[in-house]
Amino acid sequence: MDLPQQLKAITLTHVRYRRGDHLGHFLAWISLVPVFISLGGFVSHFLFRRELQVIFFGVGLVISQLINELIKTSVEQARPATCALLEACDSHGWPSSHSQFVFFFATYFSLMASKGIGFWFGLRSRWVLNLLHWCLAVVTMYSRVYLGYHTVVQVFAGAALGVVVGGSWFWVVNSVLFRYFTVIEESALGRWLCVKDTSHIPDVLKFEYDNARAARKITKSD
């Protein structure tokens, strides 16, 4: 059996860099941002928060990645020549799924911030958080070119698609699906899963903090 032809890596987590290249080492970790966001962010959020806005945010990322795979398999554009050293030539390169993921995330996150949805401490913190996410998106996009997994055209295509899909999905969620949030909350499945919508609350963190303190005082008084 010819092992090199039989084995296939999961490209989302299979990242290589040149030995001794400290910048490459750093960028290799940066290119794993989609994994950290998916597992550390959305999975833990569903387990402990179960906000409908964020659940549909995650659904949108899944849809975006499915669109990416559909385009890749249709266009079948090869990765750059460096893919041979990276053992990544068995997958297509246009558009970059990493770039699409992080730019979808940054776009959707920024639109949520503009509507005041989520945990905000005021306008200044929104700009800081948005700047952080856009910087991370740009660095992730750069890492895919630096490490040799994509061409410049491929990462820019992924970024553009991420912005378009992210903005479109935000409109769908907050202009079409939003009207069904109450129905989802009050459904048998919604009550069983304890899903909720708090997008109508200006400062969720402060709201929950105040209610937690009030509940504790009531408990002590009993």
The parts where pLDDT drops under 50 for at least 5 residues are none
Quote the distance from N terminus to C terminus: 72 Å
Measured on Cα atoms, how large is the radius of gyration? 21 Å
Order of helices and strands: HHHHHHHHHHH
Number of strands: 0
Level of helix content? 55-70%
Number of helices: 11
Mean pLDDT: 80
What percentage of the residues does DSSP assign to strands (E)? under 5%
Task: Describe the protein's architecture and organization.
It is a single chain. The chain is an all-alpha fold and 222 residues long. The protein contains eleven helices and no strands.
Short summary of the structure?
This protein is 69% helix and 0% strand.
Task: Outline the secondary-structure elements.
Elements: H1 3-6, H2 22-30, H3 33-48, H4 52-75, H5 83-86, H6 97-114, H7 123-146, H8 152-175, H9 181-186, H10 188-193, H11 204-221
